[in-house]
Amino acid sequence: MDPVLFKAAEAGNIGPFESYQTCSLNQLLTPDENTILHVHLSNQSSEPEATDFVDKLLERCPPLLFQANKRGETPLHLAARYGHSNMVKVLIDSAKALPADPESGITKAKMMLRMTNGERDTALHEAARNSRSHVVEILTKEDPEFSYPANVHGETPLYIAAYIDDYSWGQEREKVIDEILTNCISVDYGGPNGRTALHAAIEVGDHETARKLLEKEKTLTKTTDENGWSPLHYAAYYLILPNRIVEVLLECDASAAYIAETEKKRTALHIAAIRGLVDVMKEIVSRCPDCCELVDNRGWNALHYAVASKDSKVFKECMEIPELARLHTEKNDKGNTPFHLIAALSQSWGSVILNDSYGLTKWQIYGLNKRKLRVNDIFEGDFAGMQVINPL
Questions:
Q1: Would you state the torsion angle of the CA atoms of residues 89, 95, 98, 103, taken in this order, to the nearest 10 degrees?
Q2: Confidence category of residue 385, pLDDT binned at 50, 70, 90
Q3: How many other C-beta atoms lie within 10 A of the C-beta of residue 133?
């Protein structure tokens, strides 16, 4: 593309293009095969107030509307990415003026809205990724019945919006999520590796979005990723600071506490225990006390996992929770109680066993494992046959 024409396209100056035949305007390309319309849309630093340049270009050369660059991006992709809502309206209105596809009956406007780039992103993907709420509102209201599918990375627009953890977007991000949930008749919640938008919201610690998603689709609490992790597993792993997400999830569906992952069979309670998140454990136990009975594929219960956190404070706090304290005599597949693991994992915990019995008798603490080893045997260094594996 001639530098003079490139600069004219950037500036929105129609003059230099008036001498060109209308049929050749779409042949003016950059090395990336950007048309003059691509160049104009991608070089507007703010929302353009005037749309005259785009109106005149499309009037003279309608094919520019659907022409993609090397990355498969149409002008609508760029207008959505940069948040040029006025331009988005112009592009859609121009497409509406064209006849519908005779075979499918789909209007040109909907065809354009559903077009994907090289990574199978639609314009809605672009708008969601960049938190362009006004654009998202326009796009979803124009084609509410379309369920925007995942791109090559497995991301749907809703997942992308939920996963944004840059809160500098503030209300814009929230509005994007609201517009999709409100306007789309059939919402696709999917994300990569079997995750959903609910997994994403939990990972970034957004309990408000989690609540909105569950109000729309309650079954998301049972949807697990490819490793069998439910949204509650994610909450048990990621929530370092106090947060209402666990409460929100269990209020919606308490049975989520009983979901075990695919391979190691750990529940969210196990994950919270090894992460040392006692507040999360308390919330789960208070709503689903019998989930404490669940063990992983090696017979480890939640108290075993609290020991594996290697934090004596976590173990002490767990022993103050009656439902968890009762697990102190429960043995894993090798016959080891949580106290056996304490002796094996940390010499410094020996004082916990010897000096603080938690009101338990020595027999209760010093039961034998399958190798006929007492806790004291292990603490003193007799590890014969004792194999302790960190659950994570």
A1: -140
A2: very low
A3: 23
Using alpha carbons only, what angle is made at residue 178 by residues 93 and 189, rounded to the nearest 5 degrees?
95
Both tokens assigned to 158: 């809703």
Q: Which residues contact 278 (CB under 8 A, 6 or more apart)?
A: 272, 314, 317, 318
Largest CA distance in the chain: 98
The dihedral through the CA atoms of 221, 233, 124, 164 has a sign that is positive
Identify the three-state secondary structure at position 196. strand
Q: Which residues pair with 196 in a beta bridge?
A: 190
HSE at residue 125, side-chain half, CA atoms within 13 A, is 25
**Sequence-ordered list of residues with C-beta below 8 angstroms from that of 323, at least 6 positions apart, any chain:** 285, 289, 292
Q: Give the Cα separation of 60 and 62 in Å (integer).
A: 7
Query: Rounded to whole angstroms, what are the CA distances from 175 to 29, 46, 79, 135, 169?
Result: 36, 20, 18, 11, 10
More confident call, 324 vs 21: 324
Closest among 238, 375, 234 to 307, alpha carbons compared: 375
No. of H helices and E strands in the chain? 23, 0
Chain centre distance of CA 72: 26
Closest CA to 303 of 274, 275, 263: 274
CA-to-CA distance for 201 and 235, rounded, in angstroms?
10
Partnered with residue 190 across adjacent β-strands are: 196
Q: Identify whether the C-beta of residue 179 lies closer than 8 Å to the C-beta of residue 136.
A: yes
Tens digits of residue pLDDT in 362-382 = 545 657 888 887 777 777 765
Report pLDDT digits (tens) over 176-225. 999 999 999 999 999 999 999 999 999 999 999 999 999 999 999 999 99
C-alpha to C-alpha distance for 173 and 208, rounded to whole angstroms: 12
Say which amino acid occupies 25: L
Tokens (6 digits) for 240:
């370092």
